[in-house]
Write a structure and sequence with these properties.
With 226 residues, the protein is mostly helical. It has helices at 21-35, 42-49, 53-57, 63-75, 88-105, 107-115, 122-136, 141-169, 174-183, 191-204, 207-223. Helix 7 (122-136) crosses helix 8. It comes from Actinacidiphila acidipaludis.
């Protein structure tokens, strides 16, 4: 008796000559944001594009070159306010918000920028703008440098915290499990946490608002009476 083998659907390929660097980078960003740098391979990228792997190599020399190009494209999306559009503190706040939005909307950007040295001028432009604004706000050189690092550490850390939390809570029933665990805590052992659990969950669910609140407090603390 013969056994009929299942027929595999042919892989959909892109129309001939439709592949270009912009399309490759669009697909790379989508793949990176969805699956992370660990799953980013030339084969996976080619499969997403519906082409053979060598077709991608005809536009980029390899994964590292694509990663650099993706990082530069994402950095270029940071919306910097026009220079001098507001007083330094307000302008500094908008620059930080732009960096935070990039890292939360494209989690892969954070991974790429920490795994490989930054190439190009986009990241340097952001750093220069922040340092200039801190100096314009009245901080001397060393304090401006320290304030810049503190703001970037807070911004990157907040983006990482919120993107990982959002991804974890996407699992079915995750929020209910967290609430149930908090409800089950003994009040006599964790009095502060039990009493503030509803408030804690509320502020953690509003990542951008919480980031902005902390950012305002940090800027005020760093600049003080400047």
């Amino acid at each position: 008796m013969s056994v009929t083998q299942p027929v595999r659907s042919p892989r959909r390929r892109a129309p001939r000559n439709s592949l270009n660097p912009d399309r490759i980078l669009d697909a790379a960003i989508s793949l990176l944001d969805r699956s992370g740098t660990e799953a980013f391979t030339m084969r996976a990228l080619a499969q997403q594009l519906g082409v053979g792997t060598m077709a991608v190599y005809s536009h980029f020399r390899g994964k590292d070159e694509i990663s650099d190009a993706v990082a530069q494209r994402l950095l270029d999306t940071i919306e910097l306010p026009p220079a001098g559009c507001a007083e330094p503190r307000a302008e500094l706040r908008e620059v930080c918000r732009g960096v935070y939005r990039l890292f939360t909307e494209h989690p892969s950007a954070l991974q790429l920028l920490t795994l490989r040295p930054v190439r190009g001028d986009d990241a340097i432009t952001v750093i220069d703008r922040m340092l200039g604004l801190l100096r314009a706000a009245g901080l001397p050189g060393t304090e401006a440098a320290r304030a810049h690092v503190a703001l970037m550490q807070y911004t990157v850390g907040s983006a990482l915290w919120n993107t990982r939390r959002a991804r974890a809570l996407c699992e079915e029933g995750a929020r209910e499990r967290v609430r149930a665990k908090l409800d089950a805590l003994p009040r006599d052992r964790y009095p502060a946490l039990v009493s503030l659990a509803p408030e804690l969950l509320c502020v953690q669910d509003n990542g951008m608002a919480q980031y902005e609140r902390g950012l305002d407090a940090l800027i005020e603390g760093l600049l003080g009476g400047c």
